[in-house]
Amino acid sequence: MMIARIVIFNLVFACVWFARGQAEYQQAPESIQPFFKGRPMPRVSMSPNGEYLLIVQGVRFQRIEDLSRPYLGLAGVRIDPVNNGPAHPVYYTEFRLLRMSDGREDKLPMPGGRSRFSLPVWSPDGSRFACLRYQNDQVEIWVGNPARRTLSQVRNVRINAAFGRPFQWMPDGKSLLCQVISSRRGKPPSRGRLALGPLIQDTRPDKAPHRDSTDGLENDFDRELFLYYCQAELERVDVDTGKRTRLRKLNRSHAPGESLKPTIFFNYDISPEGRHILVERLHPPFTLHVPAGMFARSVEVWTLTADVKSATALPSAETIPLGGVQSRPRAHHWRPTAPDTLVWIEALDNGDPSKPAEFRDRIVLLPIEQGSKQSELMRLPHRYSKIYWGEDPSVALVREYNSSDNQHRVWRVNPEDKTRELGKVWDIAVQDRYNHPGFPMMRQLKSGKRAMRVVDGKIFLNGWGASEDGDHPFLKRFDLETGTEEVLFECGDKGFEAVVGILNDRGEKGVEFVTHYESSGVYPNFYRRTENDEARQQLTRFKDPVKALRVRKQVLTYFRGEDKLSCMLYLPPGYDLENPIPLPTILWVYPREYTRGSDAGQVAGNPRRFDRFTGADPRFLTLEGYAVLDLKLPVVGGGETANDQFIAQIVASAEAAIAKAGQMGVADLGRVGLGGHSYGAFATVTLLAHSDVFQAGVALSGAYNRTLTPFGFQNERRTLWDAAETYRKMSPFFDVPKIREPLLLIHGEEDNNAATLPMQSRRLFQAIKGQEGTKARLVMLPHEAHLYRTRESIEHVLHEMVGWFNEHVKDRKPQPSPPAAGG
Q1: Given 210, 332, 472, 786, which residue is catalytic?
Q2: Residue 143 to residue 132: CA distance in whole angstroms
Q3: How many Å apart are CA 646 and CA 206, to the nearest integer?
Q4: pTM of the model
Q5: In this structure, is residue 318 part of a structural domain?
Q6: Could you give the C-alpha distances from 259 to 107, 245, 306, 400, in angstroms and in order?
Q7: In angstroms, how far apart are the furthest CA atoms of the chain?
Q8: Using one digit for the tens of pLDDT, what is the confidence trace for 574-583?
Q9: Which of 412, 403, 402 is nearest to 437 (CA)?
Q10: Are 609 and 755 members of one domain?
């Protein structure tokens, strides 16, 4: 009987523990519910010929049934083993076509069953678009025809969308090159019941430092699974007739020979003339515990009959120095405005940034014609970053990056005459928004490649137009020869408007373009504009699905010592700033690293934008009576040592910002909480440990022990062994005894971010449990990754956040405000 009592007692105890541990999903507060009922704003894609806008409707949430589908995590890739596609892809359910000439808008007829489509890709001439359809058991290819208002499946093509590029348009716009599952593939490998022996790994003489990754290959069985699900063949498909032509080698009589053996395509890209394919293939044995992008691979140029014209072998990237690049040729791509010419970058310092070198990189060109020789375009004193190839073959801009001063330098070159040195165009501090010149506007060429628009030696620049008053986006025409610029469009003071694409850069009345306009009270829509003309022709007529009251917001400026900083302040609808009433206040934080203090104080964003709430947005708290400060915590320092002063700077920023809000009469300084996601969650816990002005915290999917990421994190480039004290100080896990305020920890059980594995929250919670007197709560979200995607999870997170802040911040009795510090 004694044994029976013990068994019964244990069963009862287990049931009680389970009931407390496994809760039901809870709904968000009633004030937030209207925001979950409408569909999100559609995405819009303009056809290359400027004739159509394709309006693509997505979903606000993913279904929890979809996220609960089994997946395989292999080499940093999450694969659906049933349909051989990506696990839990973002998808779209409806396509509408808007004809630019007359505004006619048509909804395309969709197939029966669930419609889960990828984003569409336009053909080079804009006459069609292609997209994937994610079915339960396979991934299909579908093609839309704007002229006919149709969307139809290309039959009998089983796409392998698990890894790499699923498809690409051929330059003729009539056929697709598809990555397909081999018809010769058998059943997937099965694991034996008994292990054949231990798993053994050995080090090598050379160093192999690399940051952690998720879903790495663990053993030979994982290698077999990765090979099985990711290997594919290339097949050319005529979208009109459905004719399929698998790439085959020619035999001696020039007749089609044997099919190529399936391989894993890291990437492939068709040449501008359509006669060659740039192929990057992965090769076994695949390295354990690193993402697929670090595997050994070959870079090859194939003909359409799979003859290899050029090949380069790249070893595993494990031995690349931290902050370095591959020592072998890298960044292979086609030059878009020349007959099939291959471009690549070669490191001149063996890829190691710690080595002194007069030049870091060089750019090499090789025409793929028999007997052609490679040539050097230019050498760069710093690391290559990007090339903007002009549609005029004599124009190109080359961007390099200097990590020591965090600068971009942009050089003008003439690929047709490499002897001409045309000099530097811009020297740009990467984080200096106020003085950024803008980004070159691109054009899709007839080959399907993209090139920088060039008209009479001038290019078009699309920029933020950042200022102390917020962003005022612009479109400028820039003369490459003289350096002079002409403003074609600039956003005014009554809303927010930005250029999304150029329709005609040679119009009789001037440049014609499409903009995206919104204001605090006007829902975003797209418009047709002409340079220096205030008139707008409305194209889309999207409506606010919520029509709820808008929150009040403004830029809040404060001082951290002598540094002038800013953040965005959000207030409940109808709040009167002229007669302020102190409110419970939440700081939602995220650290940002800066090389220069002047950049840290620049205003980012625009207070006149329409507020669209997504996910577990902290601004929802304003609907529950809170003030919310969206605070980017600047950390200013040079190079590798910036984080040595991390804690002092974020504490000073947070305390100065809340003091300013208190000085304004907006914040009740006795009722202040804070929260953040990812790096912001880490900052939240760090602030609770090192500051006494906060009453509670909420940390979503953070990392709290930096010794678990010993080869760097965020912008920290040193290893744990190079900067042990900094790693320890930036690990609030070691400061748990200093955390006395209530802390809510939330984490997705399937977090796919290597730095924020779920054990980070679990172990911090266990550590707090081991202390006396600190209240903490841990919520683990089933099936969720680093970003939460289901309605059930998002509502529950908001339920937990509001409840936690209500209990520990809002419902506290008002406390006497301490003297305000800061400006």
Answers
A1: 786
A2: 9
A3: 33
A4: 0.91
A5: no
A6: 41, 10, 9, 42
A7: 98
A8: 999 999 999 9
A9: 412
A10: yes
On whether both 536 and 614 belong to a single domain, the answer is no
CATH number for the domain including 723? 3.40.50.1820
512 and 624, same domain (yes or no): no
pLDDT per position as a tens digit, 355-390:
999 999 999 999 998 778 999 999 999 999 999 999
Predicted confidence (pLDDT) per residue in 110-125, tens digit: 998 889 999 999 999 9
- Pick the last residue of a domain from 501, 532, 547: 547
Cβ neighbours around 181 below 10 Å, total: 21
- Find the catalytic residue in 88, 751, 796, 799: 751
For the chain, the domain total comes to 2
**What was the pLDDT predicted at 816?**
54
Distance between start and end Cα atoms, the chain: 73
Query: Which residues sit opposite 379 in a β-bridge?
Result: 362
Asked whether residue 669 falls in the same domain as residue 597, the answer is yes
Let me know if residue 596 belongs to a domain: yes
pLDDT at residue 257 is higher than 70: no
**Confidence band for 208, pLDDT divided at 50, 70 and 90:** low
Q: Give me 807's structure tokens.
A: 């209990």
**pLDDT interval class at 789 (50, 70, 90):** very high
Q: How far apart are CA 730 and CA 130, in angstroms?
A: 47
- Tell me the C-alpha distance between 703 and 727, whole Å: 12
Count CA atoms within 13 Å of residue 316 on its CB side. 19
CA dihedral for 603, 604, 609, 614, sign (positive or negative): negative
One domain for residues 455 and 500: yes
Final residue in a domain of this structure, among 502, 526, 547: 547
- Is 445 inside any structural domain? yes
Q: Does residue 689 lie within any of the structural domains?
A: yes
What confidence tier does 328 reach under pLDDT thresholds 50, 70, 90?
very high
- Domain around 470: 441-547
Residues 614 and 735 in one domain: yes
Over 70: is that where the pLDDT of 10 sits?
no
- Average pLDDT in the chain: 90
Least confident span in 211-225, 242-256, 287-301: 242-256
For 527, the token pair is 């418009």
703 & 587 share domain = yes
Alpha carbon distance 320, 329 (integer Å): 13
Provide the token pair at 154. 């290309």
When computed from its CA atoms, the radius of gyration of the chain, rounded to whole angstroms, is 29
Q: Which of 678, 691, 701, 731 is catalytic?
A: 678
Q: In this predicted structure, what is the pLDDT of residue 676?
A: 98
Q: What is the pLDDT of residue 258?
A: 53
Active site (annotated) includes residue 436:
no
Q: Known catalytic residue: 751?
A: yes
Structure tokens belonging to residue 177 = 């090159």
Q: What are phi and psi of 206, to 5 degrees?
A: -85, 155
Annotated catalytic residue 45: no
C-alpha 406/C-alpha 595 separation (Å) is 7
Which residues, 6 or more positions from 508, have their beta carbon under 8 angstroms from its beta carbon?
none
Mean pLDDT of 448-473: 96
Q: Which helix (H) or strand (E) holds 800?
A: helix 791-805
d(CA 674, CA 697): 5
The answer on 497 and 613 residing in a single domain is no
